[in-house]
Write a structure and sequence with these properties.
Layout (H helix, E strand, L loop, with lengths): L1 H25 L10 E5 L2 H4 L12 H5 L18 H15 L3 E5 L2 H4 L10 H16 L3 E7 L5 H7 L7 H16 L5 E6 L1 H9 L22 H28 L2 E7 L2 E4 L4 H12 L3 H9 L4 H7 L8 H7 L5 E5 L3 E6 L16 E4 L1 E2 L2 E2 L2 E2 L6 E2 L2 H13 L5 E6 L3 E2 L6 H8 L2 H19 L4 E7 L13 E2 L3 E3 L6 E3 L1 H11 L4 E3 L5 E3 L5
Parallel strand pairs: 1-2, 1-16, 2-3, 3-4, 4-5, 5-7, 6-8, 7-14, 14-16
Antiparallel strand pairs: 8-9, 10-11, 12-13, 15-17, 18-19, 20-21
Helix pairs in contact: 1-17, 4-6, 8-10, 9-10, 10-12, 15-17
The structure holds 2-acetamido-2-deoxy-beta-D-glucopyranose (NAG) (3 copies).
Length: 519
């Protein structure tokens, strides 16, 4: 009897996923609320270049990328997309797409090259004011991140940046400076981008700057304590910035402030209770690590239990500061993985404890969880979008959300051959990816999730951190020799999606149906 029910359920699921694919083909902008934000996303270090112009100082990424062997193709963001000089051209690209919003980040080192130990740099203020004015002229709402990985190296050198509570003073001063200079033009602020990855990759695995982890993998650091100290300071930095915004600016400027979390989904590796528990722990050690303190005033119970005294405590004063909470949760969602228990059957991975005694994998019994992409742990699993949103909706009482990043990576060297270039431009996998993820997003919204916007990562190919220029996420291809931008098929698709003309769509067999439009 049970077998038959399972067979019927499987049959229904397969029918359902087939119709979901067909539905994905039909989706367009008209299915979303009229005031929904549709945009593209970038970050300062990944696109701006001009790393030493206009009295900008060096960020931790400027310094880190110069250490031999750190970046896959030995590159750095010195020039990147030269957006610093080409921002008007890039705004034209967005205007052409028809987006109503643009998510970007402010380079801390342009505004305060020496943190609070030096002057406000007028060149930096002018650059972002020009960018904001040009966006607003085109009817594009700025959605601004204060810190997207790149912070002044001076703060690292002086006191260890995120590891020192002093960072709260610097972050508060930086935030205040930005609200004051730009707040009448900006309605959406995010304090920090992906602090969960910053803490894990900067202080647990040490793969990102400042490259700290336990010896012998790193020259210095402590993977078992520092990630939690850095996270604690980041949470209090967020609270300090929100406090300043609420008290001094929000009423007058009428905007919203939130934080952006790396929010990939996890499925239990097997149906066993231990893997299900491991999945729930691994999820708690990720997004709720930051959002539970910000929204409910303390770390998730599983973290308190497993980490004990290694988890810093919020003082009564800290808890008071945390009461300012946030206005929205930014969700960067790309992929899903399986989570496997490491508590009852120990794993050999060094980071399993930091993931709640769970290991992550995309492979099971010779099959991957979804189609592979150019980024090794990123698989195409559209249903993960809906699940992640519903998880956050339920845990945080229907707080407003924005999908601040969602994107598909292509393999592509810095100088692709003409043949490869043709393939890169005909990125039907990316069109398929976004269609499917948007339709998963719609399902979550129809179940009551209060999602107000969606940003594609990224507008243009750019410096993809440790991968250098070897991975391409852009709707526009960038030729790094000439800085020429060329629309990919996905750029044309996004434009038509936004115009509701749906002239490019993916048929059920994966073929691209395309009515050519003039460019
Ligand atoms: C940068 O700062 C120095 C003083 O430290 C000043 O002389 C110079 O003119 C500044 N450069 C720009 C482009 O503003
Ligand atoms: C959840 O949100 C509702 C409506 O905004 C509010 O009335 C309620 O108090 C919230 N519950 C919690 C536990 O925060
Ligand atoms: C969440 O909030 C939105 C906007 O306030 C509302 O429309 C929706 O019904 C709420 N969903 C749930 C599940 O309460």
């Amino acid at each position: 009897m049970k077998r038959i029910e399972e067979a019927i359920a499987l049959f229904l699921i397969s029918l359902f996923s087939f119709s979901a694919a067909a539905a994905a083909a039909a989706i367009d902008r008209s299915q979303f609320p009229p005031n929904f934000l549709f945009g593209t996303a970038t970050s300062s270090y990944q696109i701006e270049g001009a790393y030493s112009e206009g009295n900008k100082s060096l960020s931790i990424w400027d310094v880190f990328t110069r250490i031999p062997g750190k970046i896959l193709d030995g590159s750095n963001g010195d020039v990147a997309d030269d957006h610093y000089h080409r921002y008007l051209e890039d705004i034209e690209l967005m205007h052409y797409l028809g987006v109503n919003s643009y998510r970007f980040s402010i380079s801390w080192t342009r505004i305060l090259p020496r943190g609070r130990f030096g002057q406000i740099n007028q060149n930096g203020i002018t650059f972002y004011n020009n960018l904001l004015d040009a966006l607003l002229t085109k009817g594009i709402q700025p959605f601004v991140t204060l810190s997207h990985y790149d912070i002044p190296q001076e703060l690292e050198d002086r006191y260890g940046a995120w590891l020192n509570p002093q960072i709260q003073k610097d972050f508060a001063y930086f935030a205040d400076t930005c609200f004051k200079a730009f707040g009448n033009k900006v309605k959406y602020w995010s304090t920090v981008n992906e602090p969960n990855l910053m803490a894990k990759w900067g202080y647990m695995t040490g793969q990102n700057p400042p490259g700290r982890c336990s010896q012998p993998s790193c020259p210095s650091g402590d993977s078992k304590t520092e990630p939690y100290i850095a996270a604690h300071n980041i949470i209090l930095c967020h609270a300090a910035a929100v406090d300043i915004y609420r008290k001094k600016y929000q009423v007058k400027q009428g905007g919203f402030i939130g934080i952006v979390m790396a929010s990939n989904w996890l499925e239990p590796f097997t149906d066993t209770p231990v893997d299900k528990l491991a999945t729930s722990r691994a999820l708690s050690f990720d997004v709720p690590w930051f959002l539970d303190p910000i929204i409910y005033g303390d770390y998730p119970p599983e973290m308190l239990q497993i980490l004990g005294s290694r988890l810093p405590k919020f003082s009564i004063e800290d808890k008071k500061k945390l009461q300012t909470k946030l206005d929205f949760i930014g969700i960067n969602h790309y992929s899903s993985l399986y989570a496997k228990d490491c508590l009852f059957s120990p794993c050999d991975s060094e980071t399993s404890e930091g993931n709640g005694f769970a290991d992550r994998t995309g492979e099971k019994d010779g099959h991957s969880i979804g189609a592979k992409t150019a980024i090794s742990n990123f698989y195409v699993v559209p249903s993960g979008m809906e699940k992640m949103i519903l998880y956050i909706m339920e845990r945080y009482n229907n707080t407003t959300m924005f999908i601040t990043e969602n994107g598909f990576a292509q393999e592509g060297s810095r100088n692709p051959s003409n043949e490869i270039l043709k393939e890169l431009l005909n990125d039907k996998e990316r069109v398929e990816y976004h269609s499917a993820y948007l339709s998963s997003l719609l399902k979550a919204m129809r179940k009551g999730a209060d999602v107000r916007g969606y940003f594609i990562w990224s507008l243009i190919d750019n410096f993809e951190w440790l991968n250098g220029y070897s991975k391409r996420f852009g709707l526009y291809h960038v030729n790094y020799n000439t800085q020429e931008r060329t629309p990919k098929l996905s750029a044309k698709w996004y434009k038509e999606f936004l115009q509701c003309s749906a002239e490019i769509s993916i048929k059920a067999d994966g073929d691209v149906k395309q009515k050519l439009v003039a460019y």
